[in-house]
């Protein structure tokens, strides 16, 4: 692979994580090659719910985005297997977006920040040890550091470790976009629609996104679950159902190897309770780029992974706590009882809303008082099922 075009940084994948990395590095003066196998605009299967947490990250990393990218939705109906649990309202409404437009806007910002566009090209060869990548059009790129932000099936992670994700902690999500005028003012989330996951109905500017998703290992009949969900929303048989995996509770403790840093889904960074990935993708992409900037300024590119691992530790802590909460919510025999009883509690609802808005972290949930509440509300249900002898 001789005659390579040299850069300070190569970013593979131009979703939210890759564009965040490219914009951060580009603005700091690094020369950046931004590769994506798809030409933009391109679609990405996603609910497109941009939480308050994600909006904070967006504003910090990309600045203000055009208003017409979002439909703002400030209410959500929470259900369990069709039974109403709570009507939530948000001080910071969710932005409901179409990923095709959203990702194109982020990619555009990355190019404005100086990243060189290598979209619409596949990677033909990877020599990660020497920081060299050859593309399908014959171009060869070289850099002292590479960020792999190429999603859940990351070829970069597979090259490092032989597989991109732990299959036992992978979720599958099925989704459709129903293109029809949508008068709904609230999202709907049913925590009992799928096992260790949920169903969603997200109103958009020009339609409705319907989906179900959960851990692959707990949902052998997810297609049938999706059919029921579509029937419930009057959309059965109208549109083709698509599916996509997402990381759901496993991430490598060290997010990369050597001079390769992984970000976003490629690093397993999706909240295993809420399924939120956009905020963590943007945050981790920016952190990876900051680590690269620091290491290159010190003329020690080999230190970038150490800087990044340290910066990512609070994110890993949050995802571990989210996994614990998911266990409490979904583990049998509490499943259902916890969702119905605990989430019906106004105090828990208020915290859940703040968590989704990004005003509260899992770390703030004060595990002890939360678990005390779980015990107080869920134990009566347990007593009913397993009466004391
Ligand atoms: C059905 C579904 C619904 C979801 N709903 C939500 C939601 O409502 N809100 C939320 O916050 N999160 C949601 N998520 C999670 C969210 O979509 C992801 O966490 C997020 O997109 C991760 O961003 P990323 O940049 O890491 O990866 P991606 O968005 O997957 O981007 C990866 C990029 O890499 C490119 N790429 C892939 N392979 C290669 C290759 N070999 N070479 C070059 N480029 C490559 C792809 O073309 C893509 O542009 C959902 C996920 C699914 C599956």
Task: Please give a structural write-up.
The protein is of the alpha/beta class and 389 residues long. The chain has helices spanning 16-27, 52-62, 99-112, 155-161, 222-232, 278-297, 304-330, 337-342, 346-357, 367-385; strands at 5-6, 9-12, 32-36, 49-50, 70-80, 83-97, 116-119, 123-127, 132-135, 140-142, 145-148, 170-178, 186-190, 197-204, 207-215, 242-247, 256-257, 260-262. An eight-stranded mixed beta sheet has the order 4-6-5-13-14-15-12-16. A six-stranded mixed beta sheet has the order 7-3-2-11-18-17, sandwiched between helices. Strands 1-10-9-8 form a four-stranded mixed beta sheet, with no helix packed on it. Strand 9 (132-135) and strand 10 (140-142) form a beta hairpin. The model has no long low-confidence stretch (mean pLDDT 92). It binds flavin-adenine dinucleotide (FAD). Flavin-adenine dinucleotide binds next to helix 1, strand 3, strand 12, strand 15 and strand 16.
Concise synopsis of the structure shown:
GO terms for molecular function: oxidoreductase activity, acting on the CH-CH group of donors, NAD or NADP as acceptor. With 389 residues, the protein is of the alpha/beta class.
E-strand count: 18
**Total number of distinct structural domains:** 3
> In the CATH hierarchy, what is the superfamily of the largest domain?
FAD/NAD(P)-binding domain
Summarize the helix and strand pattern as letters. EEHEEHEEHEEEEEHEEEEHEEEHHHHH
Shape: globular
Cα gyration radius (Å): 21 Å
Q: Which architecture of the largest domain per CATH?
A: 3-Layer(bba) Sandwich
Helix content: 25-40%
* CATH class membership of the largest domain: Alpha Beta
Sheet with the most strands, sense and barrel status: 8 strands, mixed
How is the largest sheet built, in terms of strand order?
Answer: 4-6-5-13-14-15-12-16
H/I helix tally: 10
Query: Could you please say which CATH topology of the largest domain applies here?
Result: FAD/NAD(P)-binding domain
Structural class: alpha/beta
Beta-strand percent range: 25-35%
Overall average residue pLDDT: 92
Q: Which ions and ligands are bound to the chains? A: flavin-adenine dinucleotide
Distance from N terminus to C terminus (CA atoms, Å) equals 74 Å
Low-confidence stretches: none
Organism: Gemmobacter megaterium
InterPro entries: FAD/NAD-bd_sf, Geranylgeranyl_Rdtase_fam, Geranylgeranyl_reductase
GO molecular function: oxidoreductase activity, acting on the CH-CH group of donors, NAD or NADP as acceptor
Protein name: Geranylgeranyl reductase family
């Amino acid at each position: 692979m001789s005659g390579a075009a040299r850069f300070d940084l190569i970013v593979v994948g131009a979703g939210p994580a890759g564009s965040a990395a490219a914009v951060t590095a580009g603005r700091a003066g690094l020369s950046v090659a931004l590769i994506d196998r798809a030409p933009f605009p391109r679609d990405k299967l996603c609910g497109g719910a941009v939480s308050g947490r994600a909006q904070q990250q967006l504003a910090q990393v990309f600045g203000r985005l055009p208003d017409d990218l979002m439909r703002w939705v400030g209410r959500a109906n929470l259900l369990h297997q069709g039974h109403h649990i709570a009507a939530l309202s948000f001080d910071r409404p969710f932005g409901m977006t179409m990923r095709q437009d959203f990702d194109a806007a982020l990619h555009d910002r990355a190019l404005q920040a100086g990243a060189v566009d290598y979209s619409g090209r596949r990677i033909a060869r990877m020599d990660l040890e020497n920081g060299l990548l050859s593309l399908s059009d014959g171009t060869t790129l070289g850099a002292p550091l590479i960020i792999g932000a190429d999603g859940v099936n990351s070829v970069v992670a597979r090259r490092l470790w032989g597989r991109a994700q732990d299959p036992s902690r992978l979720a599958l999500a099925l989704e459709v976009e129903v293109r029809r005028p949508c008068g709904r003012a609230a999202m709907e989330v049913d925590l009992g629609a799928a096992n260790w996951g949920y169903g969603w109905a997200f109103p958009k500017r020009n339609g409705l996104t319907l989906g179900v998703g959960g851990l692959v290992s707990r949902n052998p009949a997810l297609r049938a679950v999706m059919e029921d969900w579509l029937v419930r929303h009057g959309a059965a048989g109208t549109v083709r159902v698509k599916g996509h995996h997402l990381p759901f509770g496993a991430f490598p403790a060290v997010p990369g190897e050597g001079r390769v840093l992984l970000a976003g889904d490629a690093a397993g960074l999706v909240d295993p309770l809420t399924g939120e990935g956009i905020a963590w993708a943007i945050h981790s992409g920016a952190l990876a780029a900051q680590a690269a900037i620091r290491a290159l300024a010190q003329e020690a590119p080999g230190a970038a992974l150490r800087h990044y691992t340290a910066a990512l530790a609070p994110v890993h802590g949050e995802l571990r706590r989210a996994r614990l909460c998911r266990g409490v919510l979904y583990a049998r025999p509490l499943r259902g009882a916890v969702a119905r009883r605990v989430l019906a509690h106004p105090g828990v609802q208020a915290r859940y809303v703040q968590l989704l808005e990004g005003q509260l972290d899992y770390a703030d949930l004060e595990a002890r008082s939360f678990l005390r509440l779980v015990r107080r509300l869920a134990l009566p249900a347990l007593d009913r099922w397993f009466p004391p002898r």
